[in-house]
Amino acid sequence: MRTTIAFTLVAGLVAGVAACSANVAAGPGAPDSGSPGSDGSPPATDAGIILPTTDAGGPLAPPEHGFQILSSPVDIDPGAEVTYCFYFRTKNTSELAIQKWVSHMTSGSHHMIVYLTPTDLQAPGTLSTQDCGFGGGGGSSVWTYSAQSADAQAVLPSDDGTGTPVGQIIKANQSGFIQMHYLNASDKVLHAHVELNAYAYPDTARVTPAAPFVTYNTKINLQPGSAVAPRPGMVSGSCTVSPDAKFYVMSTHTHKQSVHTFVKDGAATVFDSTSWEHPGEQTWNAPPFFSFASGKLTYQCEYMNPTNRLIITGDSAATDEMCMAIGYFFPAVGGKGHLCIDSNILY
Fold first, then answer.
1. For the residues 253-271, what does the mean pLDDT come to?
2. Among positive and negative, which fits the CA dihedral 44, 49, 53, 58?
3. pTM, two decimal places
4. What is d(CA 178, CA 69) in angstroms, rounded to the nearest whole number?
5. Pairwise pLDDT comparison (55 vs 121), residue with the higher score
6. C-alpha to C-alpha distances, 117 to 73, 144, 169, 177, 271, nearest whole angstrom
7. What is the pLDDT of the chain when averaged over all its residues?
8. Phi then psi for 251, rounded to 5 degrees?
9. Is 233:222 a contact under the CB 8 Å cutoff?
């Protein structure tokens, strides 16, 4: 596969998973123990797709060229709200350039986020609630894809303005995990899992590499309030961004105390949302895409705390809060995406 820019995903930033006509090597970890399955070698189907031993699959057929990940199933009790992470490592032996992501979440799934990591944070196949999320990776976890609805997809631009398609480059033997937030509002036990398909360009395709631009705010400190008189709070940041970077997606990610988020380029609003559950996204699917003319990406998250406890930055959608701006851009100069902590570019 050829790329217009050498694109090796850095430790701690960007991209996906897997191989042509193959799936992850992932067995069914015990849901509460945080340990992988005892057999260590999940079975392959006739099509060559490796599935978790206890997962019967779902409605997504595996792509002809790309990869598929199915998380091990977990039972969610009535009224339960919990976040699990399913850890994987891909078995592909060469890079893939991904042109489309497609996902499916079963009933009880609130949202899913796919992260890539430089090494295994847990043994592949582990399903665990411990240290589950962006913070659990010590800042090295790379937001790669997310979904807030049962069936979702993300399609990368087919033309970067020069006739070259845009793709996310997936390294061989890539480590990562899928974070899954479950909320069972029913009176029955739900058997939940998620599915992810990645559709790749032909191996010989020339692509312009894409990468994420992610902000993460560590300063959330929401003072206790009450249901009658919730306490307001706010955090913000401003991150340097190259005016040459062409963005094709921009969104935000927060938890349930959030009431308003926005991203600005100088005084101009780029993205605005009042829904934490379904923030939506701003997309630019054709040239000239979007560039930050000011050289700064400014983001802000506003909250109302109706609880009687202090709420700080953290991964748990049930007890913590987050403030993240999530964008995808190209070209990924030097093979890197960017992570901005508060207002400081980490890389």
1. 97
2. negative
3. 0.81
4. 9
5. 121
6. 22, 10, 14, 8, 28
7. 84
8. -155, -175
9. yes
